[in-house]
Amino acid sequence: MQGLAEVEGNQMKIKDASQKIERDIGPLSKEVTRALNINGNGNGNGNENGGEGGREELFAQVPGMHGRDYGYNSSDMESLIGSSEDMLRESLSLTMETEQIGNVTIDQMGRQREQLQGANRNIIRTREIVEQAGSILQEMSRKAFKNKLFLYICVGILIFGNFWALTRLFKKS
Predict the structure, then answer these.
(1) Per-residue pLDDT for 67 more than 80?
(2) Please, are residues 62 and 72 in contact by the beta-carbon 8 Å criterion?
(3) Which GO terms describe its molecular function (predicted)?
């Protein structure tokens, strides 16, 4: 992960990766070193077979338990340690890859959230415009009704005036 951050050039990610390595790998490394050197440095936990107690703790029933050899030699031990280191590296690699995928997913979700918020704002604006359009249409409908009513009244008055004029014309003749 630290390598990815350095390639990316992001100082914050580099610092974060370094802290994660110190936090996650540091204690494991110290524990392995402690287990391998448990009696080699003479810290006196009562085990009399040298550094074998630490190896027993790390690799149960692997070489040299109480001075006996169960068919393993030092190259087998190195092979087991190398295999364990490879597994730890692979695990760390998978963890970093998973974290990277998680970060990408979180970034995508953040962008989607922004898009949804933008869409929500657009919907709110659209509703406001529709409400304004509805009120404008109602006002136009009222005006049209008033104009229509005025025209009907004018037509009615003209028709009444025509009948009145015709009746007077026929009465005089």
Answers:
(1) no
(2) yes
(3) SNAP receptor activity; SNARE binding
